[in-house]
Amino acid sequence: MAAVLFPHLLSLIFFLLFLSHPPPCFSIGDDEALVEFKELLTNTSALDSSWKKGTNPCDNNKKWVGVQCEKNVVQGLILGGFGLSGDIDVDPLVRLQGLRVLNLANNSFSGFIPEFFMLGALKSLFIDGNQFTGEIPGNFFSKMSSLRKVWLSRNKFSGKIPDSLASLKYLLELRLDNNELSGTIPSLSQGTLISINLSINKLQGEIPQGLSRFGSDPFQGNPELCGQQLGRECKAAASGEKSEGSSIKWIIIGLVVVLLLVAIFFKTKRKEDHFEKLEKENLDESVSVNIPISNKRSMSLRNSMRSSRRGRSRSGSDMGDLVVVNEERGIFGLPDLMKASAEVLGNGGLGSAYKAVLGNGLSLVVKRLREINKLNKETFDTEIRKLAMLRHRNLLQPLAYHYRKEEKLVVSEYIPKGSLLYLLHGKFPSQYLSNQKCGTDVVQWVQSAVEEKRVSELIDPQIATAKDSLEKMETLLYIGAVCTDSDHDKRIDMKEAIRRIEEIES
Fold this sequence. Notes:
By secondary structure, the protein is α/β, with parallel strands linked by helices. Helix content is about 30%, strand content about 20%.
């Protein structure tokens, strides 16, 4: 009987081992993402009692404070008025695949607006009543097409109203009042818009005709706004004054353009001289990953690498180096990456991925590894070089890496057409337990059963009726649970797993 069961037992253990990534819309791992998000915040006493790693944020008996769930999936963070402050790291929130509502209103957050544009599926964003400052990039909302409610009022935002708000075709509510916004109002012509407030700012020019249905209240407190709603006629300047003003304007623009061109020329010249000097010192193969961005979604990569603006050698002698481990795709140096454009590809089980295109056309992927910070530099270097030596059609060899204690980056060649994981496996047999779309993660299912001492419930009744099989299957499930433990330090290696399996067979 043991000999008959062994192939099935071995298949099951490998099945569990390869299901370490939960399906995107299931809440497995939401606790880790939320705790990671909270760690950079301050004044979190209201959250500390319930936000515990290893517990279910959606547990009806002990639900996490401020967490809103639907069908065991985190769909909203309702953290308004908790007195929170500190840094808002959006990366952990990206891992909450079901997140649709983010409410951080009436807290004490400050600084530039965080990278909420990475949350492309968000429907409601409430950050009103804080101390955010600075300009909001014009294309900030261009990738957030699902947004319906945007509340940014009672902050200290300056600059123009982002034009990308006009592209939100489902927009229902827009609150930008009590800021320091200037410039003209973009054409917000969405028929879905039912509420808008732009009052108490420094807006100028004529109110768009499409907003006339909202009356005067949403536009009060902007002395330089004009239009029928406010009873202020928008007067055109006299033709002579307009002509003279236009001439002066074009003269000023011409001078500014000339000055910019001169500045760019000298800046480029200094860079070229600097690169030539590096090449003479055999440093042309060292890389700074301070990549200029063509897409605002690449901001995370830039910020994460500010401390490593210069490398010294490919040998990795400096903690800020990019260490090249594979030269099959050529050697890319400091000038190449300095000129590369970058964009966010997405977020996976270990971190975010960015695409960078070099001047020679080579497309690279920069992967941020956030979950393996316990490895020291020597061990990390050894493992990356081992991977670089492997050759298989389904294995993407690393080309280079960057090491810092708190963060690691791995650079590899870009492969188009999506994730290799999904191409190989197609959202996963881990969903077979559920009749709903989200599915159930088998690894978490087994881990929970082990912790609650109900392993026997997992075993197929047909197997359970066979002689001596129930005890052996339970033992095998315990081995599988240890092999797939989320804590790497608690996992056993493959040699030990095989030894324990062979003990079951004997």
